[in-house]
Amino acid sequence: MPRNRTIKTDDALRMMKKIGAGGGGGIAQETDPTVPSWAKQPTKPTYTADEVGALPKTTKIPSKTSDLTNDSEYITEPKLTDAVSDALTQAKASGEFDGEEGE
Fold first, then answer.
1. What does the DSSP 8-state code read for residue 53?
2. C-alpha to C-alpha distance for 13 and 23, rounded to whole angstroms
3. Which terminus of the chain is more exposed, N or C, with fewer CB under 10 A?
4. What is the DSSP string of 6-27?
5. pTM above threshold 0.85
């Protein structure tokens, strides 16, 4: 079983230089022919929201459901409770339901 040994930082850097690793410089010059020349420039172009079809900065994005308008009239909890109660009452009155009492 190999032993773990501690290597000092200076020794590790010397070993990395010896094998050609490290240095952390990255690519000195972009050479990929598929990268457009504008993307290789230090200053990138900027665009307005209108130019790219994005929403303007003044757009308010709702952060909770209550910020929205229920224009499709989805059922709300009070309406659901009332609808269930009405249906239960009708079922009991018709004799179709003989279960426990509802609230």
1. T
2. 8
3. N
4. ---HHHHHHHHHHHT-------
5. no
